[in-house]
Design goal:
Number of strands of chain A: 0
Radius of gyration of chain B: 14 Å
Distance between the termini of chain B: 37 Å
Shape of chain B: globular
Helix content of chain A: over 70%
Number of strands of chain B: 5
Oligomer: heterodimer
Strand content of chain B: 5-15%
Number of helices of chain B: 5
Largest sheet of chain B: 5 strands, parallel
Largest interface: A-B, 20 and 20 residues
Order of helices and strands of chain A: HHHHHHHH
Largest sheet of chain A: none
């Protein structure tokens, strides 16, 4: 009750205020209609401002994405990770190549040294036998070390699996961004701002109201 | 002498083994380890995912499969299920070598009928131990049957 009273006093012309309090039926209805229209106009203006702000925010985001080089940056990031994967794979293979090349040499050194020791020929001098023993021991340690080196290359598989997961994640972010950019373009094409501003006229407000059954 | 010599007892070193992994590095590492354990390198073949593996398994005889879990097209667990579902392959020993150490996944592999499960990173000693255990168990089951 008090809200209605304050509204009639503050926002309506004096003559309308008088009509509202008068016993004249048609004049009263007209005054009430005018009051409703005024309130609806305020609501649509507020909605217009909200729609314009939303449109501006989405357009700004789309602009920022384009300015920052999207989608090139995202594609580059993914490509860099793919490159890391490829380079680490090549490095691991080179290490295994080396181990595979050296392993038969170590085996051959071990077998030659063992053959020499097994001969137990007195013609082989003691220092030479000691050297053969040393060579045999070295070859054995070398083989074990080469095997460990091959095994250690499993880091490439473990880190590579994580890189693949990050690449897949970037891919999903990329699709979401593409969708956002597409949406931004669709919104900016609608010229929402102008449509909202036209509501400032009474005719526009009336037209809009009529769509809602007023 | 290579470290793998002690597993000779009970293990047929002339087995045809299929190594399945999407990472060529890991396929090579497993191959190297198997050779180090005394298996014939020329009898070891490779596939880069489950789909390629199942096609090879249907086309030619193998004695064992060593497979990764995470692979494109067909994962290791799906490969295992496909092997168990195929009458001609269902008794094939399958060893899973994977970075997946999730409890549920290990249980899923066990329920699907895996013969052994190795979590990466692993050592030559672990591979040797699991292989020995797999074939000991198979021999025991064969003797009991």
């Amino acid at each position: 009750m008090s809200a209605q009273l304050s509204l009639t006093r503050e926002s309506l012309p004096d003559e309308l205020h008088q009509l509202l309090t008068s016993p004249d039926g048609p004049a009263f209805e007209h005054a009430l209609d005018s009051l409703v229209r005024q309130r609806e106009q305020k609501l649509f203006r507020a909605l217009g401002v909200l729609a314009r702000d939303l449109h501006d925010a989405v357009s700004r985001l789309g602009g920022d994405l384009v300015q920052e080089g999207y989608p090139d940056n995202v594609i580059d990031a993914r490509q860099h990770l793919e490159d890391v994967l490829e380079m680490s794979s090549q490095a691991a293979h080179r290490t295994i190549d080396f181990a595979e090349r050296m392993r038969p040499e170590a085996a051959s050194l071990a077998s030659d040294a063992q053959a020499m020791l097994a001969a137990a020929d007195t013609s082989v001098a003691a220092p030479a036998r000691a050297l053969a023993q040393q060579a045999s021991d070295f070859a054995e340690h070398c083989t074990a070390g080469l095997n460990d080196m091959v095994m250690a290359q499993s880091w490439q598989d473990l880190s590579g699996q994580r890189i693949k997961k990050v690449v897949a994640f970037i891919g999903s972010v990329e699709s979401a961004m593409i969708e956002l950019v597409r949406l931004t373009g669709a919104l900016s094409g609608r010229e929402t701002v102008e449509a909202v501003e036209k509501i400032n006229s009474q005719d526009e407000a009336d037209r809009l109201l009529s769509e809602f059954g007023f | 002498m290579p470290r793998g010599v002690q597993v000779e007892t009970g293990l047929n070193k002339n087995m045809k083994i299929l190594v399945v992994d999407d990472f060529s590095t890991m396929r090579r590492i497993v191959r190297n380890l198997l050779v180090e354990l005394g298996f014939a390198g020329n009898l070891i073949q490779e596939a880069d995912d489950g789909e390629a593996a199942i096609a090879m398994l249907k086309a030619q005889p193998f004695d064992m499969v060593v497979t990764d879990w995470n692979m494109p097209n067909m994962t290791g667990i799906d490969l295992l299920r496909a092997i168990r579902a195929e009458p001609a392959l269902k008794t094939m020993p399958v060893l899973m070598v994977t970075a997946e150490n999730n409890r549920d996944q290990i249980i899923a592999a066990a329920q699907a009928g895996v013969n052994g499960y190795i979590v990466k990173p692993f050592t030559a000693a672990t591979l040797e131990e699991k292989l020995t255990k797999i074939f000991e168990r198979l021999a025991a089951a064969g003797a009991a049957a």
